Amino acid sequence: MTTRVRVFPSSDREAHGVIVDDFGESIGIPVEIGGELIAGPARRWAVMLDDDNLLFVDSEDLEAE
Predict the structure, then answer these.
(1) Residue 59: phi, psi to the nearest 5?
(2) What is the structure's pLDDT at 38?
(3) End-to-end alpha-carbon separation of the chain, Å?
(4) How far, in Å, CA of 47 to CA of 39, rounded?
(5) CA torsion sign, 28 to 30 to 33 to 37?
(6) Which of 10, 20, 14, 16 is nearest to 46 (CA)?
(7) What integer best gives the mean pLDDT of the chain?
(8) What's the 3-state SS for the chain?
(9) Which domain of life is it from (predicted)?
(10) Distance between CA 15 and CA 20 in Å, rounded?
């Protein structure tokens, strides 16, 4: 089953797409080396947008269509 969602709903960044992966609640931590942030914390959801871009977001950034 494909779940359609709105990403960043009701904002100027709103986009539409489908969830393609759920990384669960244990999604990792930021990576810092020598005081420099190399990678921020992972996001829970991978969403393939209708414009074919892949976006990684957290649950609070999603709303079911």
Answers:
(1) -55, -40
(2) 65
(3) 14
(4) 19
(5) positive
(6) 20
(7) 86
(8) CCCEEEECCCCCCCEEEEEEEECCCCCCCCEEECCEEEECCCCCEEEEECCCCEEEECHHHEEEC
(9) Bacteria
(10) 15
Token digits of residue 30 = 């930021």
pLDDT score, position 8? 97
Summarize pLDDT for 14-38 with one digit per residue, the tens.
999 999 998 876 666 666 778 776 6
Tokens of 34: 């020598």
Which residue's structure tokens are 């931590």? Answer: 29
Pairwise CA distance, residues 44 & 55, whole Å: 11
Question: Is this prediction's pTM over 0.85?
Answer: no
Residue 8: which of 62, 65, 64 has the closest Cα? 62
